[in-house]
Amino acid sequence: MELAPAMTRRSREWGFSLLELLIVVAIMITLMSLATPALTSLLESGNLARGGQALADEINLARQLAASQNRVVELRILKNETPPGYGLLQVWGTDAGGTNVPLSRVMKLPQNIVIAENTTLSAAIEKTPTATMPTNSSMAGRAYTYLRIRPSGAVDPSLAMSNFFFAVVSSRSATNSALPPNYVTIQVNPLTGTPLVYRP
Fold first, then answer.
1. Who's near 117: CB < 8 A, 6+ residues apart?
2. How many of the other CB atoms lie within 10 Å of CB of 28?
3. Which pLDDT tens digit goes with each residue over 47-84?
4. Separation of alpha carbons 88 and 80, rounded Å
5. Which residues pair with 131 in a beta bridge?
6. Are 151 and 70 in contact (CB under 8 A)?
7. How distant is the alpha carbon of residue 154 from its chain centre?
8. Does residue 47 contact residue 112 with C-beta atoms inside 8 Å?
């Protein structure tokens, strides 16, 4: 009969004090604050890899459509409204009546990832022609630069391969002239249209 009060007293002593709980919470917050920059960098690196691959895939899609349909197609690289830089891709061609029509849906690069506008980082941006999207498109009035790809794979404008590259960067580095610590470069072979993907 005397065991019950002793057990009750012991069970009360097994709990955590408020001070101990506050210390555990403080340790967890400290660990999370140390891990956040590493996690952010890892996510950005993954987005950069996906963005570079998306650009290479759209160039390859344009090459395939040009070859399979035996006509010249355009890969349009559209400017973002925000953040700065080029972040949208779409393949266009002409129909039987000679009207320009989209051949693919608009492809958006991953969040906060763009093709750099700076010509030091993306030399091809300076060399490729620019235009504005037509009023009957979903991106009406949006500025874009474009590559024309022939059925043979040759790309217009015909540039030296050393100048035919685009840098895929974080939107924070879109207007910088210096290379950021993390980026992806896509170099295009002007004779075959083959994209080559480079990572530092």
1. 84, 85, 86, 125, 174, 175
2. 10
3. 999 999 999 999 999 999 999 999 999 999 999 887 77
4. 7
5. 144
6. yes
7. 25
8. yes
